[in-house]
Amino acid sequence: MLIPSQAPKNMQQQDFEAPKRIKRADQIVESVKRWVVVNGKQPGDRLPNERELMEQFECSKGTVREALKSLEVQGLVSIKTGPNGGAVLERVPYEKASQLLRNFLHFEQPTGPEIYALRTLVEPEIAALAAPRLQEEDFARLESLVACCETPARNFDERMQQRIAELEFHVVLAECCDNAMLAFIGRFLNDMIRDLVIFKKAQLPEQQEFSCANLNYHKQLLEALRARDAERARQLMREHMQSAEHFNRELEGQLQKHFLA
Amino acid sequence: MLIPSQAPKNMQQQDFEAPKRIKRADQIVESVKRWVVVNGKQPGDRLPNERELMEQFECSKGTVREALKSLEVQGLVSIKTGPNGGAVLERVPYEKASQLLRNFLHFEQPTGPEIYALRTLVEPEIAALAAPRLQEEDFARLESLVACCETPARNFDERMQQRIAELEFHVVLAECCDNAMLAFIGRFLNDMIRDLVIFKKAQLPEQQEFSCANLNYHKQLLEALRARDAERARQLMREHMQSAEHFNRELEGQLQKHFLA
DNA sequence: CTATAGTATTTATACTAATAAATAGAATTA
DNA sequence: TAATTCTATTTATTAGTATAAATACTATAG
């Protein structure tokens, strides 16, 4: 035991380096990542198959498979069987990134107010960025989503459908804005709210007022966006978010009462 | 081949369901995740060892290992060898989540302006949330970071050190604010900027003016935070960010000229 | 000539068995 | 009692074999 891996008891001197053993599979993952960036590999490009990787890295099948699994979990490759199968490079899908970030937040579940606080910051900017970039097909989607909320819901299911459509409105805007990070955060927050709506607040009495306010804001937003008026879109979205935040606070209050009773 | 997995040529009707095969290892991962949430397992709790998992899921060692690798990559468990080794539940460390999100952004590298645009939104809120929560030790850290930037840098290394310290100031605030998502975004943006500073803009002429402005803002911020004046902190941070955004734009301009020459 | 069914190949997927490495804790020794 | 060595436990890695899935190619029927 020449180089102890943890803090030794009777040695005063510092650890020379981080001596922690790096697993073979992780070394391979790092090598592959380097290979990707150095050779400028793009989505769709193929990795060598398992046999070749075994030879390349002089390791066994199991180790290669662990490395590939790691890359797959990270969303960097997808793996198929059959001729022309194997691992191919992918751009990480949103769903993957979203799910991994949710793991991070698992033990500190963000509350409704926390989510809305962030949303109030982010959504107005998304609206402003989307304004000059929306295409005709985007407008069509937005309009159909608005139309979906026009008629009053007649039952629980329809109400849910409409709430989803409301949120989808924001996803469309996020997808159109050309700031990838902003878009990601926008979509992520919408996902979080969707979960809140569906799993926590589903059984509460309908909030006619809330739905109505949302619908109005969305209509006005659509108008501003059609006019390519980024500043007005931003301002409308800001008000929309403040309104939503307010309604959410009210809802949380009701929820609390409900809980105590 | 009864249920084709891809779009069939001569069938008009929709796919009934997603018939995609779910790998054994991924099934195990899902089972473990369910087990964790259903039984309210907490960080520090141990998973069954490999042998038990093999029995539990009636599968081979290799498959269990792939499942554990997946959980490890996601940052949900850490695995040790030896007695009392095995997989123990972890709260996903920030570094893990950060790295996974960077994978997502790999093919659409956010630009400086994009990052600063988000920062301008987020940092003022972080400052306001941190104001009432900072402890004496946090103030101590902030002050030592400010002190680090007081004396003018005499060489390249010192200049880098100071830039890092400047960014670290924001990380301290992010860590103290009690909105986990906001904190994550703040830290993440700081990491992105650190990379920009270190790898892209390192060799550019010093920006005396910029450093000086930052130092001043940080000093004023510290004052406002000590006074627990959230509103003033928010406003100062807003100005600070606008100033930084402005300097960054100038820098990008210089970089462009440099590139053309 | 076209569409369908069959088949052969490539590739991942899964399992078994055995050895190596790491480490916590017990036993041993000075 | 304090350092050291031993030992049991557990993961890490390897090798080899067999199975299953996906696809390209070929043959066949209409």
TrEMBL record, chains A, B:
Domain HTH gntR-type residue range list: 22-91
Residue ranges of coiled coil: none
Pfam families per the UniProt record, alphabetical: FCD, GntR
SMART domains (UniProt xref): FCD (SM00895), HTH_GNTR (SM00345)
UniProt keyword list: DNA-binding, Transcription, Transcription regulation
Positions of transmembrane segments: none
CDD domains noted in UniProt: WHTH_GntR (cd07377)
Alphabetized PANTHER family for the sequence: TRANSCRIPTIONAL REGULATOR, GNTR FAMILY (PTHR43537), UXU OPERON TRANSCRIPTIONAL REGULATOR (PTHR43537:SF5)
Protein name as annotated: FadR/GntR family transcriptional regulator
Species name: Marinobacterium maritimum
